[in-house]
Amino acid sequence: MGVDYVVIVGYLLGIVAVGWWGKRRARSTSDFLVAGRRLGPAMYSGTMAAVVIGGASTIGGVRLGYTYGLSGAWMVFAIGFGLLALSICFSARIARLRVYTVADMLSLRYGDSASVISGLVMWIYTLMLAVTSTIAYATVFDVLFDVPRWAAVVIGGTIVVGYSALGGMWSITLTDMVQFVVKSIGVLVVLLPVAVVKAGGFSELSAQLPDSYLSFGSIGGESIFTYVLIYTFGMLIGQDIWQRVFTARSDRVASWGGTVAGLYCLFYALAGAVIGMATKVLHPHLADADSAFATIVKSALPTGVKGLVLAAALSAMMSTASGALIASATVANNDIWHRLRALGGRTVHRQTGEDHDEIASNRIAIIILGAVSIALACLLDDVLAALTVAYNLLVGGLLVPILGGLLWKRGNLPGALAAMTAGSVTVIALMATEGMLANEPIYYGLAASLVAHVAVSLSTRPTDARVLDQWRRRLAGQATDPGSGRAAQPKTAATSL
C-alpha cells in the first residue's frame, strides 16, 4: 500500500500547488467568480465535465449499475442530457447576460424582488450539493488509509476549501482540468477495462447476470422519468452549472464546449454501469451497494494503479465539491449578504473600485460555508438521498420561473414569485409526508409552480417595458461586465486558454 499512499498524497499536494498558482490570476471580482470570462473550448469543456461528474455520479453510478445493470446509467444519462440541452438551447443566451448568479438573471428579467426567494432556494441547493460531494470522500479515504469517516470528510473538505478560497474560480478551473484528466484516465482507461476483464469479459457478464441487467429499462419507467425531471432540468438552472457557463470567453465556446462535455457524460454513465455490473459478477453479495466502487478498486487493481484510480475518484468528488462551494458562496455573498448590507444603508458597487473588498468577502464566504458543509457531511451519510433533496428544491422551486423568463414574454414578477413559493412549499411538504426519496414531491411541486406562474402572470400587469428593454439588451450582449468595468465582448477573447 506504500505506493498507493505516495500516489494519493502526491496528487493532493499537486492539487494544492495548482490552486496556489491560480491565486495569482484572481485580481478582480470577475477573475475570482467567473475566471475573467476567458476560457477557451478545451479548458471550458474539461472543467464543465469535471463539475457535473462528481462523487454521486461516480460512486452512485457504480452502485446503480451493481443494483440494476445497464439501466443504472440513467441517473448520469439524465445529467448528460441536461448539459446537452443547456448547451444547445440556452448557454449562448446565458453567457451574453454577463451576470454572476441565477438570481441576477431573474432580477434582470422580472425586477429586483425576484432574487430574494430564488437566492435562498439556490443557496440551499448549492450547499447541499457541496455536502454530498464531501460525504463521498469517506469512501476513498476509508479504502486507502482506514481512517474514521469524520476524519476522511475533514481531510478532503479542508483541501477543497483551501484551494477554492485561494484563487476562486481560477484555482478551481485549473485544478478541475487536472482532475478531469486524472478522472478520465483512472475510471475510463484503467478501471473500466480491468473490471470487465476480471469479470471474464462481456460474454461472461451476459452469462452470469440476470437478463434484466442487460436492459436499459429494468430500473423502471417512473424512475427514469424522475431522473429526467430532477437531473436533466436541474442541469438547466443550477448556479454551479451557470457559473461555469459564465466563464466561457464567447457564446460559441459555451455552446460547443458544453456539448462536448455532455457527450462525455453519456459515455461516463455507461462506463459506471458496466463497472457496477462487473462488480456484481465478482462480488455478488455485498451488504451495501454503496461500497461497490471501493470493493472493485480494492480487489481488482494492483498496488500503485489502485492509488491512481482512487485519486480519480477523489478528482470527481473534489471538482463537484469545489464548484458547488464557490456557487454557494457566490449566492450567499452576492444575493443574500449584499441585500442585507443594502438594507443597512450600505450599497456596494462592483464597478467602482471595491474589487478588493469583494474578493475578500467571497473568500470569507467560501471558508465559512466550507466549514458548514464539512460539519453537515459528518452528520449525513446517504449521498443519493442528499442529492435528491437538493435537486427537488432546485427544480421544484426555480425551473418554471427561470425557463418562463427565458421563453415566455408574458411572465412577470408576481407570477415568478408565486411559482417559486408554490413549488418550494409543495416540495418541502411532500418530502416531509411522503419521504425524501419519493417521486411525488417533484411531480406535484412542478405542477404547482407551473399553475401558479401562468395563472398569476396572466391575472396581473405585464412586466414593465423598461425592464424588458434592459433584458433584451443584455440578451443581445450589450452589457458591461460586472467586476471588471469593461464592456462585454461576447464574440472575442482577450485571453485564450
Automatic annotation (TrEMBL):
Keyword annotations of the record: Membrane, Transmembrane, Transmembrane helix, Transport
Presence of keyword Transcription: no
Subcellular compartments: Membrane
Region (Disordered): 478-497
GO molecular function: transmembrane transporter activity
Short name of any one Pfam family annotated for the protein: SSF
Topology relative to the membrane: Multi-pass membrane protein
TM stretches of this protein: 6-22, 43-66, 72-95, 116-138, 150-173, 180-201, 213-233, 253-278, 308-332, 364-383, 389-408, 415-436, 442-460
GO cellular component, one term: plasma membrane
Keyword Membrane annotated: yes
PROSITE patterns documented for this protein: NA_SOLUT_SYMP_3 (PS50283)
Family the entry assigns: Belongs to the sodium:solute symporter (SSF) (TC 2.A.21) family.
Protein name: Sodium:solute symporter
